[in-house]
Automatic annotation (TrEMBL):
Domain of life according to the entry: Bacteria
UniProt name for this protein: YmaF family protein
InterPro entries listed in its UniProt record: YmaF
Region annotated Disordered, chain positions: 81-114
Database matches in Pfam families: YmaF
């Protein structure tokens, strides 16, 4: 599906590493594309699920696009914010879904979540 001016977002979801007897889940939509061609990236900013009375912030920039038969995806990875008792963070790594076109350069019912 053509994307005017390349404007699009990606759905993402996953689980963090298992630390201190638990893990967290996350899901959302990336921010809009920053840059052009496959070299573009997206921002991911989302709060994880609450486990054992706390959550964590994920705030990273994806890697550049990776070509696929259906368009492209982006790898993302990092470490969450520190939270919980004892204070700790979790690692995460995953790949986004395929591009979702947006209208007029604005995500329609999609965007980063906080």
């Amino acid at each position: 599906m053509p994307m005017p001016d390349g404007q699009h977002v990606h759905f993402f979801s996953g689980e963090t590493s298992y630390e201190y007897g638990h893990l967290h889940r996350y899901q959302g939509y990336t921010g809009p594309a920053v840059g052009q061609g496959l070299a573009h990236t997206h921002r991911i900013r989302v709060i994880t699920t609450v486990e054992l009375g706390h959550d964590h912030l994920i705030d990273v920039e994806t890697g550049p696009g990776i070509a696929t038969a259906g368009g492209h995806v982006h790898e993302f990875r990092g470490v969450t914010s520190i939270s919980g008792r004892p204070p700790h963070s979790h690692r995460f790594r995953n790949v986004t879904g395929p591009p979702i076109p947006t209208m007029y350069g604005q995500a329609q019912d999609a965007g980063t979540q906080e």
